Amino acid sequence: MSKITFIGGGNMASAIIGGLISRGTPAGDVHVVDPDAAKLAELATRYGVHGGSPDEALPASDVLVLAVKPQQLKAVARQLAPALGDALVISIAAGIRADSLSRWLGGHARVVRVMPNTPALVQAGLSGAYAGDAVGEDDRALATRVLGAVGEVVWVDDEAEIDGITAISGSGPAYVFYFMEALQAAARAQGFNPDTARKLAYHTFSGAVKLALDSEDDAGTLRAKVTSKGGTTERAINAFETSQLRATIIAAAAAAAARSRELGEELGRDAD
Ligand SMILES: NC(=O)C1=CN([C@@H]2O[C@H](COP(=O)(O)OP(=O)(O)OC[C@H]3O[C@@H](n4cnc5c(N)ncnc54)[C@H](OP(=O)(O)O)[C@@H]3O)[C@@H](O)[C@H]2O)C=CC1
Ligand SMILES: O=C(O)[C@@H]1CCC=N1
């Protein structure tokens, strides 16, 4: 495996690092740069990875993963540019387009834009990936190896699709957790204690997902098999439909995709 340096050791970087280490990447091959010493200490304790400065880490890196907030990326990229060398740069920042980043890195061509998600921590991630024509097959294969260690990788030819992937699988775990929270609250409202409410909600979710993944039926058919005519489920689904829950979910994802495009426009300008 290649030497990988993460710039930013926050939530998403921790998830990818945790996934890489549990899949056998040697801890000595992973460096993390983050201004927060407490975060670095926690990553070192949990996964054995090294913290350090960009000056130490960059010259020895084959792959650089930029995992700072989109609002921080321009300044970070400009600062890294002089010491970058020939590393493959993978940006996971929402919204920021590959050509903006390449420009901030002083015209660095080996840039891949990726949208991962936090289930990477348990090797169940999904990453959308895009690279321009200047990025060769070897670099695409290298990016696939890094992200593929923590889940599925889906390459797109049109960068605009990364905004859609951000809205579905990038932000999506939060939608799922929102539904799980709501189902727990519903269980509490039925009088169950917190432990039982959690068990009922989580186990129902994981059981339904396992059933869907293992089944040849689509989700609509599986739903119909639960929904007896004149029964209890029908009453609940009718309540969802009356409150236009499906349309709300579709509109929410469209809002997330629009925000991704907006971030690319707003933060991609070179004016400041
Ligand atoms: N969380 C998620 O589910 C997903 C996030 N992403 C993307 O990943 C990126 C990171 O998100 P997330 O992990 O949630 O954010 P976090 O805020 O948790 O992590 C970003 C980290 O970068 C650090 N940082 C800031 N400036 C620098 C610098 N100059 N050098 C090194 N590190 C620096 C921050 O420190 P400090 O807090 O002190 O500023 C922070 O620890 C974002 O661009 C986001 O769009 C993509 C997919 C999913
Ligand atoms: O909320 C965000 O902006 C980031 C990108 C996708 C998930 N988290």
TrEMBL record:
Keywords: Amino-acid biosynthesis, Cytoplasm, NADP, Oxidoreductase, Proline biosynthesis. Belongs to the pyrroline-5-carboxylate reductase family. Catalyzes the reduction of 1-pyrroline-5-carboxylate (PCA) to L-proline. It catalyses: L-proline + NADP(+) = (S)-1-pyrroline-5-carboxylate + NADPH + 2 H(+); L-proline + NAD(+) = (S)-1-pyrroline-5-carboxylate + NADH + 2 H(+). Its main location: cytoplasm. It is found in: Cytoplasm. Gene3D superfamilies: NAD(P)-binding Rossmann-like Domain, ProC C-terminal domain-like. The keyword Lipid metabolism does not apply. This is Pyrroline-5-carboxylate reductase. SUPFAM superfamilies: 6-phosphogluconate dehydrogenase C-terminal domain-like, NAD(P)-binding Rossmann-fold domains. Its EC number is 1.5.1.2. Residues 3-95 form the Pyrroline-5-carboxylate reductase catalytic N-terminal domain. Pfam families: F420_oxidored, P5CR_dimer. Residues 159-263 form the Pyrroline-5-carboxylate reductase dimerisation domain.
